[in-house]
Specification:
The chain is mainly alpha-helical. Helix content is about 80%, strand content about 0%. The mean pLDDT is about 90.
């Protein structure tokens, strides 16, 4: 039972899914971004879903299919490298899309935080296997913490819930043996710091 719950949590809070949750919160809760017209909200949500979920999943699925047709299998390390490269590329494309309007700067910064997190996880592969799940959660916690500091008080309970979700996800990853506590800690702290850097300087 606990194993099933842990697997479900890993899927629900997969790094591909988290940007979509962030967009839903920013666009449909009591924030300044909730005043965008519906067509703008749908456009933004679709763009984030396209670049963070649809394109990466389709690209990786196609790659796996092509390798099977050639009777070749990707090693876990090769797949991780490709997934991180695909993710970073898609986030860059998302950031470029968000550059079209100055009012979308917060979403561009979120996309750039994604780029930094993907590249950091990629660069760290030769030295340590960092949890991409907790890197993404650390970035989200930093985002909501920064927004609360900037006056988005309506996101205070969202911040607390996000911290709770990060803790539950870390416990699930530990329970399944997918990550060690050090990998989870480094991932969370790294994601937090990179997100702060993106919000402040990008």
């Amino acid at each position: 039972m606990l194993n099933k719950i842990s697997k479900t949590l890993s899927v629900v809070f997969h790094p591909f899914m988290i940007p979509i949750y962030v967009m839903i919160i920013l666009l449909f809760t009591d924030t300044v971004h909730s005043y965008y017209p519906w067509r703008v909200k749908v456009y933004l949500l679709w763009n984030v879903a396209l670049y963070s979920l649809v394109l990466p999943v389709l690209t990786l699925a196609l790659l796996k299919r092509l390798r099977r047709l050639r009777n070749k299998r990707l090693s876990k390390r090769e797949f991780t490298i490709i997934a991180l490269l695909v993710g970073a590329t898609c986030y860059i494309l998302c950031a470029i899309t968000m550059m079209k309007a100055p009012s979308l700067s917060i979403f561009r910064k979120i996309a750039m935080a994604g780029v930094l997190c993907e590249l950091f996880c990629l660069a760290s592969l030769p030295f340590a296997r960092i949890s991409t799940h907790l890197t993404a959660m650390g970035a989200v916690v930093a985002l909501f913490a920064m927004l609360n500091i900037l006056g988005e008080t309506s996101l205070f309970w969202v911040l607390l819930l996000t911290i709770l979700c990060a803790g539950v996800l870390a416990s699930a990853r530990l329970y399944m043996g997918r990550n060690r506590s050090r990998q989870l800690f480094i991932g969370f702290v790294s994601g937090f710091m990179l997100s702060v850097a993106a919000m402040m300087w990008m």
